[in-house]
Design brief:
The complex is a heterodimer of chains A (about 475) and B (about 150).
Chain A lengths: L6 E4 L2 E4 L10 E5 L2 H7 L2 H10 L8 E9 L6 E8 L4 E2 L11 E10 H4 L3 H11 L14 H10 L1 H6 L27 H7 L12 E10 L2 H7 L5 E8 L2 H21 L12 E2 L3 H36 L10 E6 L1 E10 L2 E10 L2 E2 L18 E4 L7 E5 L2 H6 L3 E2 L9 H7 L2 H12 L2 E4 L2 H6 L8 H10 L4 E13 L1
Parallel strand pairs in A: 3-4, 18-19
Antiparallel strand pairs in A: 1-2, 2-3, 4-5, 5-13, 6-10, 7-9, 7-11, 8-9, 8-19, 12-13, 14-17, 15-16, 16-19
Helix pairs in contact in A: 4-10, 5-10, 7-9, 9-10
Chain B lengths: L5 E6 L4 E7 L2 H16 L9 E8 L8 H18 L2 E11 L5 E11 L13 E2 L7 E3 L4 E9 L1
Antiparallel strand pairs in B: 1-2, 2-8, 3-5, 4-5, 6-8, 7-8
The chains are: A alpha+beta (about 475), B alpha+beta (about 150).
Chain lengths: ~475, ~150
């Protein structure tokens, strides 16, 4: 699709007008500035936005967030809300790493409090937290325990001793997406996941000790407990092999369903089924199982991070002020109520590489945060910075309460590995930025080099200018653990 | 496997893809699996000490297409790799027939992962259907396929 089809709505919002000859049921809407359009968006990516617009029951528009890039079926950064009664659900609109997401834990400490001990602290975390390709957890789950995690999510993990009682209130969906049934998950998926709860995985997943380097919104920062110079911890991981297998299983189920329900799709990776069909319901249930597993996974990782701090600083995690600020996923589909043409509609919002960004007053937001909007966590690359934003009232109108999720790649993994040496990169990050980097694999580290990513501040600025989220704080990395 | 069969790994912005080619369809499947093995690790460093069998019934194959059969077979290999902590380096298909009740019969060879000996390059989430098409070039007397893996 030629980039000239785009029409400008404003400096940060562009439209692919609905083209019936392509089967588009709605427009495509892309949040980007001119730089992003030139740098990150190509003809194939635009085609993917248009392809999503063909899904039956899609409401208002097929959206692309400011960090949009080429994916499978859906673009990464794609958002689609489908009518629960007439629309479809598509595993391609969630992706393989179901409920991959980010959490941020605050502390009462500043750089001066940890400076002398950051080396041993990173060592402790590195050696106690399973990470890297094929990493196995310290926990091996029986089917009975897996069943409890699917049904109860984070609450089961907390009841087993991982974390604070109140953690679940600061997790999207209170740490448990409803509608998860064990019977809808295959044996293979359970086998791939039952020794992976509490493991970081590989690729772009990480644990970072960070320092709050800038506050943009004092009021919101106060509510969230952030202050300049503060030490915080960010964790990025997902549903591991369990989610990957569930996605594979249901893409197959949807290949037959698409034919059975006579749905025309322009790309096989968009395979889907009516939400109300047996296939649609089973996928939602299995995806909810993976979502609950992913949130429980980050809960375990967060627990071990707290334990490492407790050991190194000889104080309890509570005494160190290590409270969970928020945990939010960026690959998920969920039933939500949104106002469309002046009336409440039940829709299934697919967010693939996009973060929920609910505005102030929404009851899905923890009561303590309700007046400022939902916290949105945007990880950047390991050499520069990450952000915390809040959702806005405009996002509810503009993007079904959604915003960006990260920086997005600039360089392929193969090219990054050819151009960048992992050992040299680690040394450079320490010599130039005093960042301690620990990685299970040096070649994987090269793939994750800062140069391989866009500058996340460009993405976040577009999201703020488009009014789909608002900047609260910027964090810079001090210590990084990569899978 | 014929001497003219092979594969190459190609660049893709977020992920990684392979192009496989072979004289026979069985060879094409075997080359695709070798391509996947080379994304995961170095096949040359993997002993053939353990044998696993993978059989696929026709009822498991959606739309009864070769593409679906290929993806399903690769997924089953990936499942054994991840759930049994094994790496594989040799793939033999003894039967491939979509009209038959058992559509695919294969033996795959490898060994348990030993991190002291094997370097694992990356994790593969799944092979994808993205732009997936098995092409038969009659002039060159070869089959071709490109597969993108989500990693």
């Amino acid at each position: 699709m030629n980039i000239n089809v785009l029409t400008r709505i404003n400096d940060f919002k562009w439209k692919i007008p609905r083209d019936e000859s392509l089967g588009m049921r709605v427009d495509g809407i892309i949040f980007a500035d001119e730089y992003m359009l030139k740098k990150a968006i190509d003809e194939e990516t635009l085609q993917q936005v248009a392809n999503v617009a063909t899904l039956p029951g899609i409401c208002r528009a097929s959206y692309a967030m400011p960090d949009i890039h080429y994916g499978y079926g859906f673009p990464i950064g794609g958002v689609a809300a489908t009518d629960v009664h007439e629309g479809v659900i598509s595993p391609g609109g969630v992706g393989f790493d179901i409920a991959c997401g980010v959490r941020i834990i605050r502390t009462d400490m500043e750089l001066k409090d940890i400076k002398e001990k950051i080396g041993p602290l990173m060592d402790e975390m590195y050696h106690t937290i399973p990470k890297g390709v094929g990493s196995k957890s310290k926990i091996k789950l029986s089917d009975a325990e897996m069943k409890k995690i699917f049904a109860k999510g984070v609450r089961h993990t907390i009841q087993s001793g991982y974390g604070f009682e109140e953690d679940e209130y600061f997790i999207e969906e209170n740490g448990c997406l409803q509608g998860a049934r064990f019977a809808d998950v295959s044996r293979q998926a359970i086998d791939r996941g039952n020794d992976q709860l509490g493991s970081l995985g590989s690729g772009n997943h990480f644990i970072e000790v960070q320092k709050v380097s800038q506050i943009f919104d004092e009021r919101a920062a106060n509510v969230l407990g952030f202050f300049e110079g503060q030490i915080v911890i960010m964790i990025h991981s997902g549903s591991r092999g369990l989610g990957h297998q569930i996605c594979s299983d249901y893409i197959r189920v949807m290949q037959s369903a698409t034919a059975k329900y006579k749905i025309n799709i322009p790309d096989r990776q968009l395979a889907c089924a009516p939400i109300r069909s047996e296939e649609g319901q089973k996928y939602y249930s299995a995806m909810a199982c993976a979502t609950n597993f992913a949130m429980a996974n980050r809960q375990c990782l967060g627990h071990w991070v707290r334990s490492a701090f407790e050991k190194i600083f000889s104080a309890s995690a509570r005494a160190l002020g290590m409270f969970l600020v928020y945990d939010v996923s960026h690959n998920v589909a969920k039933y939500e109520k949104h106002v469309l043409d002046g009336r409440d509609r039940d829709v299934c919002v697919h967010r693939k590489g996009a973060t929920r960004s609910f505005g102030p007053g929404n009851h899905a937001i923890p009561e303590q945060y309700r007046k400022i909007g939902q916290p949105v966590i945007i990880p950047g690359d390991m050499g520069r910075y990450s952000y915390v934003l809040t959702g806005t009232a405009e996002a509810m109108e503009e993007s079904f309460g959604s915003t960006c999720h990260g920086a997005g790649r600039l360089m392929s993994r193969t090219k990054a590995k050819k151009q960048i040496n992992g050992y040299a990169l680690r040394k450079r990050l320490f010599d130039e930025n005093q960042i301690i980097v620990m990685a299970a694999s040096m070649s994987s580290l090269a793939e994750e080099a800062p140069d391989a990513y866009k500058d996340v501040s460009l993405v976040v600025n577009v999201a703020e200018n488009a009014k789909i989220s608002k900047k609260v704080a910027k964090m810079i990395p001090l210590g990084v653990i990569k899978g | 496997m014929s001497k003219r069969d092979g594969f190459k790994v190609i660049e893709h912005l977020s992920d990684v893809a392979i192009k496989a080619y072979a004289k026979r369809i069985e060879g094409l499947f075997e080359m695709a699996a070798m391509g996947m093995a080379s994304i995961l690790s170095e096949p040359d460093h993997i002993q053939r000490s353990i044998k696993k069998q993978i059989h696929i019934k026709r009822e498991e194959v959606v739309n009864l297409s070769l593409e679906d059969l290929l993806i399903l077979w690769l997924e089953k290999i990936l499942y054994l790799h991840e759930s049994k902590s094994m790496l594989f380096s040799d793939f033999k298909i003894s039967k491939l027939d979509l009209d038959s009740e058992i559509s695919l019969v294969s033996e795959i060879f490898g060994e348990n992962i030993d991190l002291g000996k094997h370097e694992i390059h990356t994790h593969i989430k799944a092979p994808t259907y993205h732009d997936l098409q098995i092409i038969r070039d009659k002039k060159k007397d070869k089959f071709f396929v490109k597969i993108i893996f989500d990693i």
